[in-house]
């Protein structure tokens, strides 16, 4: 079983940033409003993710490290419409097989907190507030070959920050802080009370603008305008079947950067050819030279029309009707770029 977990770890964990992604996913699934990341040596020596979410009951702590232990989906039908970031129940087991792990947690409504040592399985009482901290030390200690592929601490840190940035851009209702070697390196304050599920209110759009500015810099806001598009077809609830919102723009030549393109599907950061191609084609007539577009696009659609269980890292998706999604994103961005700037 240890071997199987290590093989699974090979698919899920490439570097410290992969661990960060999984742990932050879990914190968000637990309903956290504040997530604090602490790193040593670019995450190789320590990754600690602390949240104020619902916590884990004492008796359920040992299950968290078990393979295919997920509390998030109960049946195949749930898999058709996954609402949480995680659902495979293999991340913690995989990470525990390649690092020294511990979970500290206090479940909501309870007064006692416990620490579970992932190596020994020992469980003991500790003191802490509501929520969970997962600590991952000495990543790849047992697989020196993998450890050798890691880059400098500065590079690994940059990847860890990028991983949190991707989460942060979708969750202005959650505060994030990143510490490295005892120094605060990034902090994005919570600026909305409720999740940004459907960004329909002005308050939600304003909070998203605030978060985009905090994370990507005020230039991103200055260079872009709001995207707010929905399809004419309605779903079974009478709502538009597809919505695309966010911001898109064209930067000055001097400020053009290749890393200011973000796509989300139902709140999940994805890297997807259909989406990037659609955005690209909307820019065809407006971009000249080697200027790069800037955008953060959020697609909301019926979860049964998109499969997120394609790849262990869940960064790829498969659309049931990719033409429909392509057209939606293309139109959304084209309309935005064609509109006079406010
Ligand atoms: P998955 O997220 O796919 O369910 P994981 O291996 O990431 O699987 O986590 C296993 C289980 O541990 C989760 O289903 C959840 O019940 C619990 N868990 C992990 N991290 C947290 C957390 N930060 N807060 C509350 N529960 C957690
Ligand atoms: Mg998970």
User: How many structural units, i.e. domains?
Assistant: 2
| Largest beta sheet: strand ordering | 5-4-3-6-2-1-7-8
Residues in helices, as a percent range? 25-40%
Bound molecules: adenosine-5'-diphosphate, magnesium ion
Strands, total number? 15
Describe, in plain words, how this protein is organized in 3D:
42% of the residues are buried. The protein has two domains: 187 residues, Histidine kinase-like ATPase, C-terminal domain (Heat Shock Protein 90); 137 residues, Ribosomal Protein S5, domain 2, CATH 3.30.230. The protein has 342 residues and is of the alpha+beta class. It has an eight-stranded mixed beta sheet. Helix 2 runs parallel beside helix 7 and helix 10 runs parallel beside helix 11. Strand 4 and strand 5 form a beta hairpin. The protein is 32% helix and 24% strand. The chain contains eleven helices and 15 strands. The site of adenosine-5'-diphosphate has 22 residues, from helix 2 and helix 5. The site of magnesium ion has 5 residues, from helix 2. This is DNA mismatch repair protein MutL. Belongs to the DNA mismatch repair MutL/HexB family. GO terms for molecular function: endonuclease activity. Keywords: DNA damage, DNA repair, Endonuclease, Hydrolase, Nuclease.
């Amino acid at each position: 079983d240890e071997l199987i977990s290590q093989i699974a770890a090979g698919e899920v964990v490439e570097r410290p940033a992969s661990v960060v992604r999984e742990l932050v996913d879990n914190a968000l699934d637990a309903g956290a409003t504040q997530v604090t990341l602490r790193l040593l040596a670019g995450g190789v020596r320590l990754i600690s993710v602390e949240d104020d979410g619902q916590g884990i009951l004492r008796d359920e702590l040992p299950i968290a490290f078990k393979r295919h232990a997920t509390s998030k989906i109960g049946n195949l039908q749930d898999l058709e419409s996954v609402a949480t970031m995680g659902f495979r129940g293999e991340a913690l087991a995989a990470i525990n097989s390649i690092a020294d792990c511990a979970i500290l947690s206090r479940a909501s409504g309870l007064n006692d907190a416990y620490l579970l040592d992932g190596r020994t399985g020992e469980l003991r009482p500790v003191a802490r507030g509501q929520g969970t901290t997962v600590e991952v030390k000495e990543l790849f200690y047992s697989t020196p070959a993998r450890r050798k592929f890691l880059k400098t601490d500065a590079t690994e840190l940059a990847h860890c920050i990028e991983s949190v940035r991707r989460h942060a851009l979708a969750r202005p209702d959650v505060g994030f802080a990143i510490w490295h070697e005892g120094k605060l390196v990034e902090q994005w304050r919570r600026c909305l009370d409720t999740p940004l599920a459907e960004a329909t209110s002005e308050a939600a759009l304003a909070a998203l603008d605030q978060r985009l500015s905090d994370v990507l810099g005020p230039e991103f806001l200055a260079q872009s305008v709001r995207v707010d598009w929905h399809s004419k077809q309605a779903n079974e609830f009478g709502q538009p079947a597809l919505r695309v919102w966010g911001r898109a723009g064209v930067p000055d030549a001097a400020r053009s950067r290749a890393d200011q393109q973000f796509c989300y599907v139902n709140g999940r950061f994805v890297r997807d050819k259909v989406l990037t191609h659609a955005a690209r084609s909307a820019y065809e007539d407006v971009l000249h030279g080697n200027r790069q577009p800037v955008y953060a696009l959020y697609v909301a659609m019926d979860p049964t029309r998109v499969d997120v269980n394609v790849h262990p890292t869940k960064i790829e998706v498969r659309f049931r009707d990719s033409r429909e999604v392509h057209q939606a994103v293309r139109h959304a961005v084209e309309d935005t770029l064609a509109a006079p700037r406010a």
